[in-house]
Amino acid sequence: MKKFRQRVQSLLINSFALPSDVILELPRITVIGQIHVYIENHQGLVTYSDTELKLKVNKGYVQIKGNSFVLKMMLPEEILLEGTITDIKFLSN
Amino acid sequence: MRQVQGTFFTGYVTILIKGNYPELFFQECTKKGITVWNIRKIDQDVCEGNVRLKDIKHLRTIIRGTHYKLNFTNKKGYPFIFNRFIKKRPLLVAIFLSVLLALFLSNILWKVEITGVPKDIEEKIVKQLDEYGIHRGAWIFSLDQPNTIQQKLVEDVPELLWVGVDRRGTTYSLEGVEKLIVKEEEKHGPRNLIATKKGIIKKMYVAKGLPIVQVNDYVEPGDLLVSGQIGTTDQEEESEEEKKERNFDLVAAEGEITAETWYEVKVTSPLEYSYEELSGNKETKYYIQIGEFKFPIWGFGDPSYEQIHYDTKENSINFLKWELPIKIVDTVLSEKVYYKGKRTKEEAIQTGIEQAKSELLLELGKDAKILSEKVLHERMEHGKVKMNIIFTVEENIARVQPIK
Question: Which domain of life is it from (chain A) (predicted)?
Fold first, then answer.
């Protein structure tokens, strides 16, 4: 059943050119230079401090490091981060 | 950022959260659908962020049952500014009063300007205006419309030929033209008097010139009545030659030749007639008019008149130099009564004659005098009497004709 679903999903992505983030429920991360990171489709904030932001995503975490972080906006599944970004890392469970 | 736009107008507060992992409180908030922005971690266990004013009550339900401590550190936005402003009651009262004062002063007559007439007439006008209630400090609503004032002034100040009344904001400017009584002492060139109408001469008064016709003569239009050439009569028979050589004395003939003239007038007079009259019952209604919409403020319900004559007066309200779109309208509803009557043929003839007489007199001027009238012919047609009337009139038929 799971295999079948995966096949349908890849079929949708490849033949109908649907965006993969929507189909696979993966986060879409938009980085603007070093100053902004815009994360959509996350599943919750885990840690936030001046230098680190860790978000839960489908199958793991996203860790963003840098300094003077400010969360410019927080909506149920979106976060806009402002600051000086140095790393964006994917951590698996 | 669209979600955060316009928050200045709806108002927002900055909250400070204390406790372990304070950022998780904001996470909780967003899950509940509260938008949070500008989140900043100040310390290990202190975090601040902005939320909308209207979300504060949801915030309280979320914080209940958690270990977090909530503090409000800053209030921003229009609702707070407005509240602060509202709290300053004296200021509000002062603003209200000053607007009221400006409104009040804009509707008061400040100046009456009179131009174009000499001082003595100006004083007369001022006195007359005072009587109408137009003076400095008068309430503009209570004054008549400029054209009414214009008419009244011309009637009441006989020296005025014409007066233009114009209201410009709080100023009434009157421009008068004085009636100059010009005496006709001008030098006339030599002239004759000729007849304008056919008739029989009844009276002659010749001030200057040589009368050509006599009383009881019949004249046709264009006939010479009084000649402007004098001084030739005695020697006229002596010789034709001499007459031609001689220089005539030419004068401006002057005089009044009254003759009997005739007019035939056709009149139609109906047997049935109707006219309308105001019965004297009236009611006044007041409205405030904003644009096209009228809002009654006094005088409700319609009077039980069958026919109503409306007389509406609009008073606009000024604010400083502008005319506000608000008007105070008063409407006078007067009862109108239609009368219908019938008359006999004789009465119809009589009224027909009267009507023709007054029309004729209007046409001929006030010097003419109707001596007699005679109905030549009358016939009934569609309930109307049609008549031909001949009038005998006495009037001045002289007209000047310059001699070249």
Answer: Bacteria
